[in-house]
Amino acid sequence: MRDPWPEHIRRLLDACAGQPAHQVLTSAGWADLRRHCGDLAIALDSLGRRTIAQRVDRDYARLHEQLREATNPESTAASLLCADAVAELASTLASIQRFQAVAGAPRASGPAGIAAASQNPGSEPKRAPEARRPPPTLTVAAFIEWTNFSHSTLNKYARLAKVPTPRRGERNFRYTWADARKILETIIAQASDRRIRDKCRTALKNPPEITQ
Amino acid sequence: MSNSGSPNRPLARLVVELYDWIGRVRGSGLLLRREGFDDPAQAVRAVDELGQFREPAKAIIVWLELHGRDTDAAEADDAMAGLRETARQYDAGELQSLFSERSDEYFDPLDQLIEAASRAAGRLEDLDGTIPHTLWRGFGDA
Known about the structure:
Distance between the termini of chain B: 17 Å
Helix content of chain B: 55-70%
Strand order of the largest sheet of chain A: 1-2
Distance between the termini of chain A: 30 Å
Number of strands of chain B: 4
Oligomer: heterodimer
């Protein structure tokens, strides 16, 4: 994996805080940052570090959005949000760098990896044999049985999580394990009802038997 | 904060640091005290003050994600994000005094910031109670 927090990216993020937003967005340095974050996210994803890859993506996207907002010079709130977005991306990259020895090692994805992680929480999960098979999937019925959600709740959050959903009348639709996790993580992040969030946390800790 | 937390329990350490900060703000507000006894205290921004917790918290969040504890990481992230948002609103002057019927008194913006920090610290404290101490092995070595 490439250096997650190289000097030129540090300098660029420092500059984000001090330079006008439009100048940052049109600079060659910004193109470097976009490429760096994209490459890093792909590298992390390929190592099974999907959540952290998503964090890099999300932090970059948020900073981009805030810089675009900040091109409006009237907005004080935007400058505070922009500074926050800069600091969030910087701290994410710095933390990945700090734990690069762990982040750079592959981990198992899917329920087997999670189960291994919860059985042996102090150590890195080993790559499960399932990792070489095709990605595991979940039927809609299995998802509902697993989480106790209604069809409408599941559909609502699947759309929010931007994962594929079954077409009207479609049978045999299956969620990939990665999409299933994405839905639950979206609920945890966005649902206002704590009971629903807790339900998702419990579900993630107790993965179902997955069929291919 | 120069350290990212105790090598043994960084999350517990972060909670302690947050409560210490809350205690200071409760006692003297958001003021920066200079070294000299007669140096005037200077008002500071809440977001700048809370900046000291960002890196330790992010290190904890990334560590949890690296160890497959995504939901715990999301909980810590959410707690800190909520606090940062209240701090931003405080600095931007978006918080108004609120009357609390329960305690029959007004909560000014600083009270609301303190309340948000206490809530975040409480959530992190609850989270710390659910994480096995062995998970932090190796955290302080990096």
